[in-house]
Structure formats: structure tokens, C-alpha cells
């Protein structure tokens, strides 16, 4: 049962696309104070799930979270905002309800931070819709919520293959070298990513011909070996005379404006940029069509970045800062002046004040950016998705984005942003998966191996053992950090076996993905969603159920030779060194210490379930669906969903194959 409550004059976010009648009864579960803040008391045993891409645990109690899309590479415990805003929560315990606060501006969720038994939700302005959902259990509430926000995006099958990326591949030779090294190491690979260096002076939809003289040929050579090239597209458009995207945008009024009606200027990778007004349907349409410049060259996947939008600085703030620094430099810098100086410099990037300075044109209405900030990234991916659907109606294109709002799950996936090569970031990624699934995002994954900082060989191995279960499986790292292509490590053979296990699992993972997308189910769930009455399961924060068949419990601590797991029912432990070299053992319900060496993958098959494993191929195109082995409980069966992996509507080629043990 879903009820919609309207407060003030909300901006239509397009998160909810089904019609829901407005309810005029008082809002249940929450009290509202004079400022329009929502309060509810939390009993000691109630759990709060949700908020999608946020830091901390699966149970969100004990911190304050701010939905304000932010280019934040510091995914630390004291962070409040990351790249996406997913304002959907479920309170479970004595009460059971879901609540979606559909609000496009800054909104704060104080979940037991100020007072441990109270949650308050504070939108910056009192203009929003609140949806309250009651149901039989958490999964039912999620299903109902997903039914009103629309079906999740389904990428092409090849996007489930392993992808290699790095900010630092400078030219065509670097790309060819990566492909060749993977091929000679016999490691399966489906994609190589092009970061900002493929562009001419970081200009969207251009290619630097000195470094990539023939991108079309490169893309075609790669594709002949089963590898797709996936370029990055950034939100900011470089200000440069003669650059068509800039000139067309200016001429047609497609960029965001400042208070004087001039095109707003910020600075990102290219230096001074304008920001396309993605909330303006004409501008969205125009920018979306630009992707064709690259699809014409044989490109069939994109990652959209810097679309919070990230702003390194605005010119007026920079000038003010420089003036101030100049003044400071005249005297002897005392400690207070020193902190003012460092604060001003650090405060240039992503300064909240800058987001109040520009405006959108939404069907003739001028809207201040800060009131709709969290919708910007979603509408960038929407522009690409909608345009490509028209340009190539018979083909899926891979899209994933850094910034998002609920609704963006219809247009693309997301990656979890600029994490670090830290052990704790394996766990952080894992804890976000169910919360993202609740909000409709299922094509998700983290930068495997870690983006910032130097990775280590053991971290990479453990990270692979986790990420090989996530739909998006990409190794990505920042310029200047230790290189982390798998062939660089002495454990290359073990890493290769892990990637092969991924490929053995792809038909299953893709099948579970399709089920989640088509039936509004969660691919990844906390144990408590399936085992409500189990008091131990409710507290488990580092294991997840995957589909109806598996439980994953990755090792995420350095030098650990195993880990503790809690089994909420009898399960079959699978210890795998190679896709065809594994050991299984039935373990009883309860607590266990499970050994797991660095070269082993450990996971669990649920009671009376079976997992199909296929012979791995060198890429997704070559997977042989005839060579299947079933691992798991005897006398059980699995229904595999399979389509052609490319037609936009999977139903057109969908088949259900029953596999019996
Ligand atoms: C941002 C992205 C990162 C990318 C870098 C350079 O930090 O999040 O993935 O590599 O920009 O484009």
C-alpha cells in the first residue's frame, strides 16, 4: 500500500513515474514541526535501511547523512554526502514501513545522530512529496516502491564482462598494450575504458588525433578481439571559440545561466566551462544527440562523470581567495590567518555557495540550481539514454554515471565513485549494494582494486573475490597511483583464475540481474530481508544474499586467512581455486570460522539450491551455454533467464531454461 503526501509546492523530480493518488490524511509515522522537519522515534530494536550510495553500515542508525550530490573522493566515516541522493528508507522492527522523501535539493537524514532514538528528516525547503509504503516485509515494500519508479536499466550482456580502466592511458599504444597484455596472459576481458586523455583538451565529443589518430580503427580492432572501448563524457563543456558544442550551446541558450542571464562559468578539467542545462528538455535532447559522434566510430558504451556537477572553482571565488592570500602574504602569517588561508583554498572545490549562483530553464521557468541540484547527474544520463534509444532503437548502449538520483536507475547504472585502495572500502562497497538495489540501481560496482592510493597485491586479490559477484566489474585507478592491471602482479595466475570464475558465473549473474530488473527484486539483500525472525541475521553487516541461491561473505581484512560467517540456515560452503577445481561442504546453521587463503574464493550455496557454472570464455561473446555444470544440492533446479543480450526489450528474446541437478 503506497500513499503520497504533498507538502508545499514540490519540483517534479520524475523519480516516480506511476500515478499515485494524493492522500489528504495526516502523514503517518512522522510528526512535523514548525520548520517542516519530519520526526519519528526509533525504538532500540528498529533498523533503518536504505539511502543508497552512502557511507557507514547496512543499518544506517547512528549518523547524519546529507543528500547533496558531491564530488567527494573522501569516503570516510565522517563524510555526509557522496555522489548520489537516494532518499528512500525502510524502518523495520516494531514498525515496518518505507518512506521516500522526493526532494531535489539538500535534505538531511539525522538517524539517531542528535538523539540515538530519534530520526529527523530535514529538507532545506518545505516543498516535497513523501511516499509512505507499507507491506508484508521489506522485500514487498521494495517491490512496491520499485513498481512506481519504473524498471531498472539493463545494459548489454558484454557489460558483465571484466573491464580494465585507468586514468593515465595516454594514447592508442597504451590501449593496445593493455589489450595485448591481457590476451597474452590469457585473462578474459570485455572492455577497456578511455579516461579524459582521449579528448582534445578535455572537450566532450572530441578525440585528440595526435594521441588517437584513428579511434574508429582502434575500436574496430578491439572489437574484433571481443573488447569494447568505453569513453568517459564529462558534464562541463569547455569554453573555446570554434568548438562546436560550446558554440551551439551558447547560440541556443542550452547552458545554465547566472543571475544576470549570462552563461554561468565554472572550472573543471578543461579549465573554464559552461554546464549544459540538463533540466531543460531541449538542451537535454541536444546534448544526447552528441553521443552519436562517438557511436558513429563504433563506440557502444559510455561513463558519465563530474555530473554532480563537480566545480573545481568559480572565478569570483578564486579571485576573492587570491586577493585574500595576497593580503595575507603582506604580513607575518599567524596561525589563524594560516587556517583561513588553507580553508579558503580547500573550500574552492565543490563550494556549496557556488550552486546557488546558477539557474535552469525548465519549460520557460527559471529554477535556482540549488533547489534541484540532486537531479543534475540523473538528467545527464537521461539525455544520453533517450537520444541513443532514438538513434539506435535496436541496440542497448552501456551507460553508467557517477552522480544520480532515484529515477536515474531507468537510464543507466552507477559506479561507486573515487574510492581508495583501502581494505575498508571493500566492505563499504558491499554495504551499499542492497541500499542501491532498494532504490532501483542494480547495474552497480566499485573501482576494483581501489581508485585513489596505491593498491597491494593481496588487496587486489581479495577485491577481485568480492567484485566478481557485482554486475559492474571494472578495475580502475587514478593517475599517479601504482599501476594495477592484473598482469603486473606476481599472482597473475591466481587473478586469472578469479576472472575465469567470473566468466563461469556470468550466465547466472546475468540471469539474476534480469530477474531483479524485470520483477523489481533486489539482487543483493541483507540476511535480515530473508530471515526476519533470526535475531543474529539481523545484525550481520558483512555478508549478503545474492539472488535466491547464494550468500557471499568476502574476506576484507589484510593478512586474514579466513573469516567468521553466520549461516542463518544450513548452507553449502564452496571453496574454489579454479572454476573447475573446488571443494564443497555442508555447514550447519550457526557461527563458523571459514578458512580462505589468498588464492581461494569462498561463497555459499543456500539449502536446496543449485548454481550453474559455465566453461569460461575469453569474453562474453564466446560463452558456451551448452557446457554447464551444476554445483549445489542434489534434486534441485535452477531457472536460467537468457536473452540475446543486446535488444533493448529483453522480453523479445527471453527464454527460461530449467536446469536440473
Ligand atoms: C573523476 C572520476 C574518475 C576519473 C577522473 C578523471 O575523479 O571519478 O573515475 O578517472 O575523474 O577523469
Describe this structure in words.
This protein is α+β, with helices and mostly antiparallel strands and 661 residues long. The strands form ten sheets. A nine-stranded parallel sheet has the order 25-24-22-19-14-13-12-27-26. The chain has a six-stranded antiparallel sheet with strand order 28-29-30-35-32-33. Helix 12 (457-467) links the parallel strand 26 (447-448) and strand 27. The protein is globular and about 75 Å long. Alpha-D-glucopyranose (GLC) binds next to loops.
Strand order of the largest sheet: 25-24-22-19-14-13-12-27-26
What is the CA-atom radius of gyration, in angstroms? 25 Å
In angstroms, what separates the terminal alpha carbons? 39 Å
What count of helical segments does DSSP give?
14
The geometry reads as: globular
**Bound heterogens, unique:** alpha-D-glucopyranose
**Uncertain regions: pLDDT < 50 for 5+ in a row?**
none
The whole-number mean of residue pLDDT values reads 97
Q: Indicate the structural class.
A: alpha+beta
Question: How can the largest sheet be summarized?
Answer: 9 strands, parallel
Helix percentage range: 10-25%
Relative strand content = 25-35%
How many β-strand stretches? 39
Amino acid at each position: 500500500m503506497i500513499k503520497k503526501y504533498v507538502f508545499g509546492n514540490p519540483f517534479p523530480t520524475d523519480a516516480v513515474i506511476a500515478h499515485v493518488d494524493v492522500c489528504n490524511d495526516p502523514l503517518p509515522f512522522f510528526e512535523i514541526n514548525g520548520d517542516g522537519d519530519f520526526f519519528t522515534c526509533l525504538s532500540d530494536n528498529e533498523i533503518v535501511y536504505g539511502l543508497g550510495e552512502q557511507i557507514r553500515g547496512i543499518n544506517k542508525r547512528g549518523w547524519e547523512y546529507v543528500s547533496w550530490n558531491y564530488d567527494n573522493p573522501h569516503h570516510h566515516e565522517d563524510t555526509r554526502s557522496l555522489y548520489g541522493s537516494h532518499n528512500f528508507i525502510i524502518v523495520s522492527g516494531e514498525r515496518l514501513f518505507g518512506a521516500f522523501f522526493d526532494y531535489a535539493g539538500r535534505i538531511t537524514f539525522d538517524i539517531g545522530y542528535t538523539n540515538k532514538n530519534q530520526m529527523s528528516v530535514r529538507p532545506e525547503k518545505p516543498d516535497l512529496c513523501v511516499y509512505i509504503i507499507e507491506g508484508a516485509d521489506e522485500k514487498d515494500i521494495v517491490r512496491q516502491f520499485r513498481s512506481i519508479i519504473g524498471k531498472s536499466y539493463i545494459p548489454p550482456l558484454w557489460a558483465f564482462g571484466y573491464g580494465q580502466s585507468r586514468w593515465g592511458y595516454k594514447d592508442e599504444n597504451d590501449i593496445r598494450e593493455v589489450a595485448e597484455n591481457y590476451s597474452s596472459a590469457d585473462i578474459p576481458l570485455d572492455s577497456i575504458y578511455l579516461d579524459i586523455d582521449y579528448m582534445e583538451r578535455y572537450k566532450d565529443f572530441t578525440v585528440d588525433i595526435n594521441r588517437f589518430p584513428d579511434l574508429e580503427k582502434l575500436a574496430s580492432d578491439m572489437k574484433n578481439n571481443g573488447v569494447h572501448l568505453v569513453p568517459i563524457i564529462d558534464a562541463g563543456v569547455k569554453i573555446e571559440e570554434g568548438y562546436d558544442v560550446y558554440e551551439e550551446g551558447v547560440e541556443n541558450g542550452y547552458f545554465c545561466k547566472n543571475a544576470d542571464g549570462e552563461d554561468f562559468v565554472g572550472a573543471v578539467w578543461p579549465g573554464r566551462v559552461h554546464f549544459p542545462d540538463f533540466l531543460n528538455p531541449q538542451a537535454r535532447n541536444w546534448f544526447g544527440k552528441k553521443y552519436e559522434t562517438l557511436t558513429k566510430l563504433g563506440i557502444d558504451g559510455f561513463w558519465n562523470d563530474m555530473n554532480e556537477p563537480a566545480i573545481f572553482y568559480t572565478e569570483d571565488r578564486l579571485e576573492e581567495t587570491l586577493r585574500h592570500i595576497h593580503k595575507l602574504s603582506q604580513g607575518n602569517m599567524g596561525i589563524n590567518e594560516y587556517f583561513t588561508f588553507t580553508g579558503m583554498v580547500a573550500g574552492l572545490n565543490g563550494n556549496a555557495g557556488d550552486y546557488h549562483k546558477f539557474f535552469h530553464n525548465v519549460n520557460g521557468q527559471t529554477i535556482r540550481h540549488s533547489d534541484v541540484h540532486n537531479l543534475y547527474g540523473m538528467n545527464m544520463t537521461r539525455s544520453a539514454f533517450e537520444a541513443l534509444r532514438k538513434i539506435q532503437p535496436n541496440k542497448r548502449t552501456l551507460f553508467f554515471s557517477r552522480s544520480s538520483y532515484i529515477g536515474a536507475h531507468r537510464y543507466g547504472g552507477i559506479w561507486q565513485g573515487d574510492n581508495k585502495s583501502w581494505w575498508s572500502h571493500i566492505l563499504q562497497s558491499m554495504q551499499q549494494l542492497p541500499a542501491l538495489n532498494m532504490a532501483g540501481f542494480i547495474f552497480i560496482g566499485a573501482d576494483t582494486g581501489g581508485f585513489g592510493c596505491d593498491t597491494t597485491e593481496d588487496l587486489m586479490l581479495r577485491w577481485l573475490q568480492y567484485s566478481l559477484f557485482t554486475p559492474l566489474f571494472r578495475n580502475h585507478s587514478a593517475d599517479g597511483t601504482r599501476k594495477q592491471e592484473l598482469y603486473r602482479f606476481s599472482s597473475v595466475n591466481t587473478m586469472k583464475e578469479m576472472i575465469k570464475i567470473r566468466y563461469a558465473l556470468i550466465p547466472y549473474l546475468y540471469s539474476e540481474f534480469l530477474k531483479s530488473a524485470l520483477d523489481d527484486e533486489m539482487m543483493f539483500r541483507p540476511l535480515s530481508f530473508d530471515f526476519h525472525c533470526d535475531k543474529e541475521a539481523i545484525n550481520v553487516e558483512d555478508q549478503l544474499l545474492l539472488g535466491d541461491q547464494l550468500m557471499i561473505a568476502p574476506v576484507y581484512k589484510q593478512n586474514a586467512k579466513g573469516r567468521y560467517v553466520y549461516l542463518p540456515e544450513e548452507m553449502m560452503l564452496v571453496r574454489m581455486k579454479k572454476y573447475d577445481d573446488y571443494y564443497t561442504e555442508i555447514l550447519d546453521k550457526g557461527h563458523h570460522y571459514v578458512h580462505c587463503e589468498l588464492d581461494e574464493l569462498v561463497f555459499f550455496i543456500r539449502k536446496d539450491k543449485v548454481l550453474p557454472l559455465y566453461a569460461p570464455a575469453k569474453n562474453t561473446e564466446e560463452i558456451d551455454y551448452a557446457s554447464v555444470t551444476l554445483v549445489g544440492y542434489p534434486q534441485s533446479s535452477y531457472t536460467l533467464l537468457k536473452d540475446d543480450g543486446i535488444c533493448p526489450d529483453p522480453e523479445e528474446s527471453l527464454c527460461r531454461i530449467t536446469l536440473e541437478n
